Every structure is written in C-alpha cells, then in structure tokens.
Amino acid sequence: MSAEKPLLRVVRGNPSDAELAALTAVVAAASVAKTPEKPKPRTSWWGDRAASLRRPLHPGEGAWRASGLPQG
C-alpha cells in the first residue's frame, strides 16, 4: 500500500466512474496548461523603428494648396 495522499477526494455525493474520469481529465489538463506569456513592455518610443517608416501619401485635388493653408 502507498502512503501517498490521493490526488482527488470526494467530499460529498456519490459520483459515477464517468464523472470522476471527467474531473480527473480536467484537473490533469489544467495542471499542464501553459500560462499565456505576457507581451514585452515597450522600452522606449524613441527606439521604435516603425515611426521612421514613411506612410503612404494620398494626395487629392487641391492637396498642395491645402497643405500651405493654416489648419483650423
């Protein structure tokens, strides 16, 4: 006989073999499930190379004239 404690213990009720098997499967799956990795925090906006990429231009009619006018 083993002196180890049982993994699961029924405290109340009379579960069937299928119910105990389902509970054991859920507990086993939860014990090996990976925790999601946290994304790396951004260290600096100054070092972000995406800011140096040029965005596409969408000139329209009168765009050059409007670029010299005050915004408001």
Query: What percentage of residues falls in helices of 4 or more residues?
Result: 25-40%
Q: Termini, distance in Å?
A: 85 Å
**How many DSSP E strands?**
0
Low-confidence stretches: none
Q: What's the shape?
A: rod-shaped
Strand content: under 5%
> What number is the mean pLDDT?
79
Instruction: Give the C-alpha Rg.
Output: 31 Å
Order of helices and strands: HH
Main sheet overview: none
Q: Class by helix and strand content?
A: mainly alpha
Q: Number of helix segments?
A: 2
Provide a descriptive summary of the structure in words:
The N and C termini lie far apart (85 Å). The chain has two helices and no strands. It is mainly α and 72 residues long.
Main attributes?
single chain, 72 residues, mainly alpha
Quick recap of the structure?
With 72 residues, the protein is mainly alpha-helical.
Helices and strands, with pairings:
Layout: H1 17-32, H2 63-67
